[in-house]
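Open question from group meeting: does this chain pack into something compact, or does most of it stay loose? Before anyone orders reagents, we agreed to write out a predicted structure and look at it together. Recording both the input and the output here so the notebook holds the full record.
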Amino acid sequence: MNDCTSTEESGIDAHQSQESNAAETVSPPSAAPPTPLSESPVAASPQPEEFDRAGFWLRSVAFVIDLAILTMFSIILLLVSLVVSWMRVEVNNLDIEVAHSFSLSVLGKLTQVIAIAAYFTILHGETGQTIGKSLLGLRVCTLDGESLSYGRALIRFLAYGPSLFFFAVGFLWVGLNPGKRGWHDLVAGTMVVNQYRD
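Structure tokens returned:
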């Protein structure tokens, strides 16, 4: 009787051992531990732009200030030309006949163009600011934020011509595109930034 009981118990133990082995065999692999929140992949968010680009109206006010200064200079130049013409002073020690045939108005206009070119080229190349831009805290720089060379500043000034030629669309382009750059900025690779940004 005892032998039968022990035989049955050993059979039961063997059966349970087989079941446990089978359970271990088919048991699903343990789930990987959850990834910490700090290590979870997050889509890279776009970085805010480092520079605050000046808009159309702010740049327009600065340009109007510059035009007012240049207009004052032109008036002074015109007065000087009138005085020279009235006094009949020879120009650059030319002969009297050549001096009479020389047009002081042409000389005045040529001087005015040179003065305007020098105004924008030298100031933009030296500090990136004309008087109008300086008063409003604006600065012209490259797309990397670097100062302009005199050559780039001259190219930017010469590109004012196409910007003005087509009904000033090149200047209006500042307010029509997200980059806030006019045609002259696109040609010269420049932008105007607001230095008063918080």
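Observations to bring back to the group:
The mean pLDDT is 77.
The longest strand covers residues 138-142.
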